[in-house]
Design brief:
Order of helices and strands: HHHHHHHHHHHHHHHHHH
Radius of gyration: 20 Å
Shape: globular
Largest sheet: none
Strand content: under 5%
Number of strands: 0
Helix content: over 70%
Length: 362
């Protein structure tokens, strides 16, 4: 499945993160860019699972994790290797240590960082915490969806169960803030980068894919009829959540409010075509940026770190240098790594599918 506007949204999410990291974090909400990535990931992954279930009446966990590994791991491990090499070459201020490498490679870096267990990564690799959140989520969610498919669980019941988990995440953030008294302004923050506190942004994207997925022609009568109004209201709520910067609100309700607001916006973008409100998201340069945004997200902080050492008082020059280097690197990774990996993945999927034919969820 391919929805062109989603590549545009992915590009905008990356630009929010990049501009914030380039020095405008007091103005541009880079953290909201990550929330968009989370929601988008949940929507796309669940749509793919739903498509598989509609075609084959089953979910192959083996093929899901194979697809995930070929998509996520090669660019991430290459970015890690490059950062360690540059660090030991003296181009980065922080070189990282072995435990940091292990923590990132085996997807527990966000918790190692939160628990202060001396897992140090090279400068420019701090964004990896968000990959940890996503992968922890996808260790569990495909199995839950497999159970829904096997049990022929009605969509309404699926949504109720998943909304219950979203509500649990919100309550957990309240508990962390008001009972545990977790720090609200310093980094790392449990409410910001712990998987158990942030998974609901991904899960709300999953709910959209299950219940109100325009790509599958879901009826969604009320949402479809007033989609423009709901999407506009969602934009207003997002702006309000960004303007109101009280720390307790930001570390509890903000993530929930933003994710709920993204729900009608994504529905509008996926159900509306050939109108200027959405058509600009399908602009080819923006879509192209969206296609390489994963690798750019992984590496953009590295040239930013180097540029700040070389041009310490030139904010715009550092940003332009970093963007150009990140873009060139990401395009090379797409051509030399991602596309060959996709071909190998397809080959292995075909090999694995033959003996698994007729089996429901290996």
């Amino acid at each position: 499945m391919y929805i062109p506007s989603l590549d545009g949204i992915r590009a905008l999410a990356f630009l929010l993160v990049f501009i914030a990291h380039a020095g405008l974090d007091n103005i541009v909400p880079g953290g909201f860019g990550v929330t968009i990535f989370f929601f988008l990931s949940g929507y796309l992954i669940t749509s793919i699972l739903r498509l598989e279930a509609s075609r084959t009446h089953r979910i192959s966990l083996r093929q899901f994790y194979l697809r995930r590994a070929f998509r996520i791991l090669p660019p991430m491990y290459l970015a890690l290797a490059m950062a360690y090499l540059l660090g030991h070459a003296g181009l980065l201020q922080e070189t990282g240590n072995v435990f940091g490498l292990l923590a990132a490679s085996f997807y527990f870096y966000n918790y190692a960082d939160l628990l202060h267990v001396h897992a140090i990564l090279p400068s420019g690799t701090g964004v990896l915490w968000s990959l940890m959140v996503e992968e922890h989520f996808y260790f569990a969610f495909p199995l839950a969806y497999l159970l829904f498919v096997r049990g022929k669980t009605p969509v309404r019941n699926q949504v109720i169960v998943l909304l219950g988990f979203c509500f649990a995440a919100l309550l957990w953030r309240f508990s962390l803030v008001y009972l545990v008294r977790t720090p609200l302004t310093t980094l790392p923050r449990w409410t910001y980068s712990a998987s158990d506190a942030r998974f609901d942004s991904i899960l709300l994207g999953c709910i959209l894919a299950i219940r109100d997925n325009a790509w599958f022609g879901d009826r969604s009568t009320l949402l479809r009829r007033f989609r423009g109004i709901f999407a506009s209201f969602g934009i207003i709520l997002i702006l309000a959540s960004l303007i109101f910067r009280e720390p307790h609100f930001r570390e509890t309700v903000r993530y929930t409010l933003q994710s709920i607001s993204l729900y009608p916006i994504f529905f509008y973008c996926t159900s509306t075509s050939h109108q200027w409100q959405v058509h600009w998201l399908e602009w080819k340069p923006l879509r192209w940026l969206g296609l390489v945004s994963y690798s750019m997200y992984l590496v953009h902080l590295i040239p930013l770190s180097i540029g700040r050492q070389w041009f310490p008082s030139h904010l715009i020059l550092v940003a332009m240098f970093s963007f150009a280097i990140s873009l060139a690197y990401s395009w090379a990774i797409r051509v030399l790594v991602e596309q060959p990996s996709r071909r190998w993945r397809h080959y292995l999927e075909m090999k694995l599918a033959r003996p698994a034919e007729g089996v429901v969820g290996e």
